[in-house]
Amino acid sequence: MGITIEKLVLRHIRMPLVHFFETSFGRTYSRDIILVEAAMDGVSGWGEVTAGENPFYNEEWTGSAWPLLIDYVAPRVLNFTFTSAEEVYGRTSHIRGHNMTRAGVECAIWDLFARLHSQPLWKEIGGGARAQIPCGVSIGIQDSVPILLDKIRVELEAGYQRIKMKIKPGWDVDVIREVRREFPSILLMADANSAYTLDDVNELRRLDEFNLMMIEQPLAHDDIIDHATLQRLLQTPICLDECIRSAHQGQQAIDMGACRIINIKLGRIGGFGEARRLHDVCARHGVPVWCGGMLESGIGRAHNIALSTLPNFTLPGDVSASRRYWKQDIIVPPVEVSATGTIAINDYDGFGYEVDHRFLDMVTVRTETLT
């Protein structure tokens, strides 16, 4: 069945975080997020642009996404008849970069297809390998080591199966040593967000003593070659994040030995279509993947849940409960994590939750309807 996109509604929302989130880029206290609603015959699919408030993770930010959606992405999809959601990626692929902006529309159309087919999004994308997905948490840089240890303890007591802690020069080896002393057997990984260079190789090699699951993106955000050099010098697996923006780049990284694990983020990759292709590349080479997060609202979080049902998502991802980030989410019910650190998959149409339109209106900064 073909569908013709009759209308796109853009919403810029602003939501304060329960607690600030700090990486090597700095601290985030609230999230400015763009939501995309794609509509046909009175049915709507929903997507989320996962770009941050500043162009620090990559070149995109909320302010850049808004005009790009209006001037470049929307004209390529409005009034176009798609026979499959797979075709959306190609309709906007001539736009260089800006994968997160393009993915907001692409994911909305995947969700729309799922609703028109009266099936859950996870089934629409070919998922369903598991009825529950394992969950981990990402903990930002804290004001002190005792505060970090307390936060880890709280998350472990909540059932989360894996702890990811952010690191940067000066907040790495000694801090991880304290974490390992307090929690010797937990699944633990470190995320550097490109904070190091090969000049730091001796410091990074010291991390081998801590039995980490992985070190995520230690070197430059756009580098694969230096990561291949570093991986040969480390026992700890490197996981690549920022520098993998396509299935082709994932194949290159694997061929070069630049990593042993890949983090798949829907926005960074450009949506479900390319995420599935990257997933398949990794599966063929025995490279496990997991789903990374970008402090999404409930809509983006629900998309991550669907993605995580694909078979090669064998490691706990950053898909956690709504309440970790928001006093109130824009979906009902909020995403909940079980006492054993899992999220159950449901069979509702589309992304599986209802949009709380009343609360959504309260946090909306601006809207634009495109026809």
What does it look like?
With 371 residues, the protein is an alpha/beta fold. The protein has helices spanning 62-77, 87-92, 99-116, 121-124, 145-157, 173-182, 201-205, 225-233, 247-256, 266-269, 272-284, 298-307, 357-363, and strands at 3-4, 7-23, 26-40, 43-49, 81-82, 132-134, 136-139, 162-166, 188-191, 215-216, 238-240, 261-264, 289-291, 331-332, 342-344, 354-355, 364-370. The strands form five sheets. A seven-stranded parallel beta sheet has the order 7-8-9-10-11-12-13. Helix 1 (62-77) crosses helix 3 (99-116) and helix 9 (247-256) runs parallel beside helix 11.
- Gyration radius, in Å: 20 Å
Q: Under CATH, the topology of the largest domain is which?
A: TIM Barrel
Q: Can you write the helix and strand succession as a string?
A: EEEEHEHHHEEHEHEHEHEHEHHEHEEEHE
Helix content: 25-40%
Any idea what the shape is? Answer: globular
Number of helices: 13
Main sheet record: 7 strands, parallel
Low-pLDDT windows of residues: none
Spatial order of the strands in the main sheet?
Answer: 7-8-9-10-11-12-13
Total discrete domains: 2
Beta-strand segment tally: 17
- Mean pLDDT equals 95
CATH class of the largest domain: Alpha Beta
